[in-house]
Specification:
Keywords: Membrane, Transmembrane, Transmembrane helix. This is Integral membrane protein. It comes from Alkaliphilus metalliredigens (strain QYMF). The chain is mainly α and 194 residues long. The chain has 6 helices and 2 strands. Strands 1-2 form a two-stranded antiparallel sheet. It starts with a helix and ends in a 9-residue tail after the last helix.
Length: 194
């Protein structure tokens, strides 16, 4: 069963990674990915208690990401003040979601590392540890940079934002690949918690 839960976790993370839109509608909505992640974490709680801490975070993200299903034209809001208010609200929700995603990732990385150590999968445990550190640094810098978008000249912020965006893209792929590796490495001989 653990292999199935990690497979679900992989697909949930993959759905949240892609942002495919058609006429402002998200064709792969993040909340669907978080529902799958929530479900997978429910099964993984049978193998380690740390996943119980991750599950409520996935539940909150289901609701925080529903508004992203449709991203309308912000120019339809009344004047420049409306646009600024919309952008500030969106930035606030993005920052809260980003912090919760960071905590969720920590519990998934740590839970996977603990399960790998228990099964003497040293390479997988080491990958969890090193990828978590890289993930933390890049996601933290992305979160830290959001409030400065309006206050720093565009030329300065653009270069840093592009580099962090590329780093975030790469580390998210490595996170998803790690979960895929977990689904391949973990076998059915895992004992469930009692």
């Amino acid at each position: 069963m653990i292999k199935e839960y990690y497979s679900r976790l992989f697909w949930g993370l993959l759905i949240t990674f892609f942002d495919i839109r058609f006429n402002e509608f998200n064709l792969l909505p993040d909340f669907v990915g978080y529902i799958i992640i929530f479900s997978a974490l429910g099964g993984l709680t049978n193998y380690h208690d740390i996943f119980k801490k991750a599950r409520p975070l996935a539940f909150v993200l289901i609701f925080l990401t529903i508004p992203d299903l449709y991203r309308g034209d912000p120019n339809l809001l009344a004047g420049a003040e409306g646009l600024l208010s919309y952008s500030m609200l969106e930035m606030g929700v993005n920052m809260i979601s980003g912090i919760i995603e960071l905590l969720l990732a920590y519990y998934i990385f740590e839970g996977t590392r603990i399960l790998a150590v228990e099964r003497e999968l040293k390479e997988l445990a080491q990958q969890c540890h090193s990828r978590w550190k890289a993930y933390l640094i890049i996601r933290f810098l992305l979160l830290l940079g959001q409030p400065f978008i309006w206050n720093v000249p565009q030329g300065i912020i653009l270069g840093g934002w592009i580099l962090l965006g590329i780093g975030g893209f790469i580390i998210q792929i490595l996170f998803i690949a790690l979960i895929r590796t977990g689904s391949e490495e973990f076998h059915e001989d895992f004992t469930e918690l009692e």
